[in-house]
Sequence to fold (70 residues):
Amino acid sequence: MYRLILRGGEYHRLAADAMGLLRSEVFPGLWLDPATLVSGDEARVLAMVQLGVASTEHAAFEPRLQSFAT
Fold:
């Protein structure tokens, strides 16, 4: 199964990082572990999401999110 991302009107393969995570380029801090999603390990899925939300890239993205809330 391929994980694809749309860049400049063309689809490209999205590679997992060294931890096996897919990191969103559109929503910084959204980290998904595809193997964990498939296996149904909900605790690890949640742990990876929480780790991403606690990342510095998500912290830098939060002001943009807040601008949508108002």
Residues 19-69 form one domain. The chain is about 45% helix and 15% strand. Helices lie at 34-39, 42-53, 56-69. The chain has one domain: 19-69.
